């Protein structure tokens, strides 16, 4: 299906194209580009113009450039513009204007991507749904997601993030939202913000991108909730709250964490509701309720929405639980909770709660007792109070139920020093120090959580632990 014709792209960008072309996708990376894509030569760490020839050689339909790159023929299918990033934004604006899709924007300090994926699951059951790839939530990710939106989409979900003040509002306006959801406001990116209130004001700026009559959905039970509600009122939006507080429009009444799921009882604007998600986590319960509020704002079937949410599982690195078989003959195994994509104090507390609620298996390993084990990496971008925030993890009310805690990174050393000796595992400066010897970290029957900010690379430990698993032997041909 054609996504962009040269005629539409020229109209959108006011650029020049020497020849006609048609593209069925948009790409910014020659490593993943597909034949027929429009290649966008963005300047970031590398200049995309250096890869135009390679993109065309791989079958790109055309390239969006600010000049004719060296080694590329002037009669190649090029769309020449003054500024490539601005042109990509113009493509996004044009794509948004030509579709009838209802567009949902998602932001928050914790749970943006998981909630975006919940919405993909829910909305996808009731219409053609376009959602952001991975965490494409910044100044190029949002316009790229919009530029990739099919003309026949019924719904779109746009994740919007930030690192500094003033980033969210222009991206929200670009997306031209029908519904905006804030998951939770937490102490993240404190290097760039004075306090939690400042973060709340920035997150609430997503409501500035709402269309007239749009719906603003936000948590009801945070100290900064009045800031979010005031922003919704200022945007002339329909204000909808969700959370555990008695005054929430969508209220959590009971959350039960099981080994493989979270069972939730709630009230949806006064109507009792029951739903589940296929992974444990109180934070997933809250975000799931927010996602159901979005479904109601879009006037979807509430029963189908809840049922579809019940099939959702978190993306890799964001709380996925895996069963790793160590020995297929002896049938020994351990469970791995992969939450290694990112971390801040709020998301770490939620991950620890999941580990604490999990039940290890006794009597199967060399230790004899199944253990709860955490490998915790540094939480980054927390500003001048970062050491105190790491030390405060020791005050988690259920931390004593975790048998062993290993710490990774210079900031986590402050937590390691506060742990009781019997609970204190290893401290290492570099995740690779543990990734080199994964078998020493676990035993059969254990449940192990790996959590840390992306930059500390505890995902290397996850990869090493995952490789300990043995695949079941295949039956010889002719046998069942």
TrEMBL record:
Compartments where located: Cytoplasm
Gene Ontology CC annotation, any one: cytoplasm
First-level EC class: ligase
Secretion signal span: none
GO biological process, one term: cell division
Residues binding ATP: 108-114
Domain Mur ligase N-terminal catalytic: 24-88
EC number: 6.3.2.10
Ranges of residues in domain Mur ligase C-terminal: 328-453
Reactions that this protein is recorded to catalyse: D-alanyl-D-alanine + UDP-N-acetyl-alpha-D-muramoyl-L-alanyl-gamma-D-glutamyl-meso-2,6-diaminopimelate + ATP = UDP-N-acetyl-alpha-D-muramoyl-L-alanyl-gamma-D-glutamyl-meso-2,6-diaminopimeloyl-D-alanyl-D-alanine + ADP + phosphate + H(+)
Family the UniProt entry places it in: Belongs to the MurCDEF family. MurF subfamily.
NCBIfam families hit by this protein: murF
Name of the molecule in the record: UDP-N-acetylmuramoyl-tripeptide--D-alanyl-D-alanine ligase
Species this chain originates from: Cypionkella aquatica
Gene: murF
């Amino acid at each position: 299906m054609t996504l962009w014709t040269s005629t539409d792209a020229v109209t959108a960008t006011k650029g020049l194209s020497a020849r006609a072309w048609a593209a069925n996708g948009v790409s910014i990376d020659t490593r993943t580009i597909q034949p027929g894509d429009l290649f966008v030569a963005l300047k970031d760490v590398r200049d995309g113009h250096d890869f135009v020839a390679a993109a065309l050689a791989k079958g790109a339909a055309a390239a969006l450039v600010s000049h004719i790159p060296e080694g590329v023929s002037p009669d190649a299918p090029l769309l020449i513009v003054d500024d490539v990033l601005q042109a990509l934004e113009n493509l996004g604006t044009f794509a948004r204007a030509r579709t009838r899709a209802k567009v949902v924007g998602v932001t928050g300090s914790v749970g943006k991507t998981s909630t975006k994926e919940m919405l993909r699951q829910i909305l996808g059951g009731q219409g053609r749904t376009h959602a952001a790839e991975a965490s494409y939530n910044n100044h190029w990710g949002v316009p790229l997601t919009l530029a990739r939106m099919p003309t026949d989409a019924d719904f779109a979900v746009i994740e919007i993030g930030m690192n500094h003040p003033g980033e969210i509002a222009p991206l929200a306006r670009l997306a031209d939202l029908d519904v905006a959801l804030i998951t939770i406001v937490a102490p993240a990116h404190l290097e760039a913000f004075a306090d939690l209130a400042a973060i709340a004001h920035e997150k609430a700026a997503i409501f500035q991108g709402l269309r007239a009559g749009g719906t603003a959905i936000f948590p009801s039970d945070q100290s900064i909730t009045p800031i979010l509600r005031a922003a919704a009122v200022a945007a002339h939006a329909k204000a909808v709250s969700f959370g555990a507080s008695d005054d929430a429009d969508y209220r959590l009444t009971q959350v039960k964490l099981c080994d493989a799921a979270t069972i939730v009882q709630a009230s949806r604007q006064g109507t009792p509701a029951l739903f589940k998600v296929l992974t444990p986590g109180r934070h997933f319960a809250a975000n799931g309720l927010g996602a159901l509020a979005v479904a109601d704002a879009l006037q979807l079937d509430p029963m189908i929405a809840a049922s579809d949410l019940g099939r959702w599982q978190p993306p890799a690195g964001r709380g996925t639980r895996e069963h790793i078989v160590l020995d297929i003959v002896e049938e020994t195994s351990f469970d791995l909770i992969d939450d290694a994509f990112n971390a801040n104090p709020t998301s770490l507390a939620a991950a620890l709660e999941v580990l604490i609620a999990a039940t290890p298996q006794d009597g199967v390993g060399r230790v004899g007792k199944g253990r709860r084990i955490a490998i915790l990496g540094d939480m980054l971008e927390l500003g001048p109070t970062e050491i105190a925030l790491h030390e405060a993890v020791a005050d988690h009310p259920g931390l004593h139920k975790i048998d062993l805690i290993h710490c990774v990174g210079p900031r986590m050393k402050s937590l390691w020093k506060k742990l009781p000796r019997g609970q204190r595992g290893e401290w290492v400066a570099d995740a690779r120090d543990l990734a080199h010897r994964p078998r020493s970290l676990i035993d059969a029957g254990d449940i192990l959580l790996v959590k840390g900010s992306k930059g500390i690379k505890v995902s290397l430990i996850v990869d090493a632990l995952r490789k300990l698993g043995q695949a079941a032997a295949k039956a010889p041909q002719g046998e069942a």
